Amino acid sequence: MNYFGIVMEFLRDRIKFLQNVRNGKHLEKYIISFALCSAFFFAIYGGIMGSFSGGLQAIASAIKLPALYLLTLLICLPALFFFNVVSGSKRTFLQYFCLLLASMSAISVMLFGFAPIVLFFRLSINDYLFFTLLNIVVLAASSFIGVQFFYRSMHFINDLQGKQKIRSISAVKGWLVLYGFVGSQLGWTLRPFFGVPGAEFEIFRPVESNFYAALLQIFGKILGLN
Amino acid sequence: MKEFNQEFHELSITPQELEEILHIDAIANIAIDFYRGVMQKKGKYLVSTLLTELGLMAIAIVLILPTTAIVLQASGTRDRHLVFPLFTISFSLIGLILLAFNLYCWQKAKQLKSLTHLLSEIEKYNRVVHSVTFVDRLNSLKSSDSQPEQNRLETFELLQTIRHSLITALNVEQLMREQTQWIPSRYELLATLESDLDILMAFTARHDENDNSQLFNEALQIGLNVHKEIKKFQRDR
Q1: Site from A6, A9, A36 to mutate, B interface, most B CB atoms within 10 angstroms
Q2: B70 closest CB neighbour out of A31, A63, A189
Q3: Is the pTM for the entire model greater than 0.90?
Q4: pLDDT digit string (tens) for A58-91?
Q5: Tell me: the pLDDT tens digits for B100-118?
Q6: Chain A residues with CB inside 8 Å of B74's CB?
């Protein structure tokens, strides 16, 4: 099977893809292709992200970045499915899985597109903070596009009417918040992605509190509160 | 002339057409590639199977390695002592997944053996159609020494019959694979195949040597192989 061809076909003709998902056609084909291609593209970008701190960190990040996106998807997928079933949707588990993987593919393709730019800055500027910030911007922009695609797709395949439809859309919005929550905590657990130049390689940092507590701590430091 | 050439070209069996007839899922497609690559030793499909296996291994690594590491870390294993159990557990699990996948593909490929042979015949048939179209186009350029109309008509009829045989054989194979008991449409399809075989035999008897002899014989062979395959499949059931 031509996995990359299927992903390109999806990117070029999204309406046809969404119609196929709505009719439950070729779901397995899409799922296998999206999973393989997104893992590959995320791994390439992850490798570039980790390259600032040496070879071992590059390999670790090439595994961690696809893991972050795909594990978050697997953790949150049952919640998405049951939220929608409770709202009255007749769509199947595979249809939701396919849509989510399609969004992941869109994110991974965007990242793959940005990879040469990030690699260029990695090789031409030896500034760790700038490199970290650049990656955060690229990751945020790509993820935003992917989430937007997912939200629109959910509208497209929605089989409900009236109040049920409103409830279902609210469920999707709530689920997206949950998805962000799980994703950021998993990212926190899987860190480091960039490593620290010159420091010894570590697979994981010790688990300390959570992403949001750390974020509050940083703000506290900036504001001189602790 | 151009119109006739176009008609020749339209005799090929397209992937879209196959998709509509077969209704096979992605896993079956992988199993077919597996059979053609591993059993029939066809390079293109072997590469495709290896890429699928590599992809599956990559996904297994990406999902299992970090998950195992998180679980080990949560159970109190620290960085330096993490490496050995992490790799032992993860790669054992990955090995098991790959083994299970290969066994599943093997089983599925055995069920789809006849379909795989028919698909190989379709590939050969499409190659013949392509060559005939090419030869026809060449002949249309040399006006003085062009192929007699009778020959071209005969070639066209032969390819049309083989095309019909191939599509009927695919339908028969699908019916026999999906249904265990005899159903009327299956009898009808088999009768159609028999009548196609009679036409093919008539072609063999009256065929004269001409420019397209080799292609003609190749096409006849495909037609006969299809019948042999269906007979074999019927016996095996």
Answers
A1: A36
A2: A189
A3: no
A4: 999 999 999 999 999 999 999 999 988 888 888 8
A5: 999 999 998 888 888 898 8
A6: 207
- Confidence check on the interface: ipTM exceeds 0.90, yes or no: no
Tokens of residue A160, six digits: 């409900």
| Residue B219 contacts residue B196 (beta carbons within 8 Å) | no
Cα(B53)–Cα(B200) distance, integer angstroms: 42
Determine the residue among B33, B46, B56, B62 to mutate to test chain A binding: the one whose Cβ has the most chain A Cβ atoms within 10 Å. Answer: B62
Predicted confidence (pLDDT) at residue B180 exceeds the cutoff of 60: no
DSSP chain B: -HHHHHHHHTTSPPHHHHHHHH---HHHHHHHHHIIIIIS--HHHHHHHHHHHHHHHHHHHHHHHHHHHHHHHHTT--HHHHHHHHHHHHHHHHHHHHHHHHHHHHHHHHHTHHHHHHHHHHHHHHHHHHHHHHHHHHHHH-STTPPPHHHHHHHHHHHHHHHHHHHHHHHHHHHHHH-SS--HHHHHHHHHHHHHHHHHHHHHHHPPP-TTHHHHHHHHHHHHHHHHHHHHHHHH-
Test B62 with A39 for CB contact under 8 angstroms.
yes
Q: Which of A203, A205, A208 is the best mutation test for B, with the most CBs of B within 10 A?
A: A203
Domain hosting residue B200, numbered range = 113-236
Question: CB distance B66–A3 less than 8 Å?
Answer: no
Whether B211 and B184 share a structural domain: yes
- Hunting for tokens 């999906």 — which residue is that? B178
Residues B145 and B232 both lie in one domain: yes
Q: Is residue B14 part of a domain?
A: no
Determine, yes or no, domain membership for B19.
no
Cβ–Cβ below 8 Å for B58 and A43: yes
- For residue A190, list chain B residues with Cβ-Cβ distance below 8 A: 66, 70
For residues B121 and B39, membership in a common domain is answered with no
Cβ-based contacts of A1 with chain B (< 8 Å): 26, 29-30, 33, 48, 52
Pick the closest to residue B234 from B226, B20, B13 (CA basis): B226
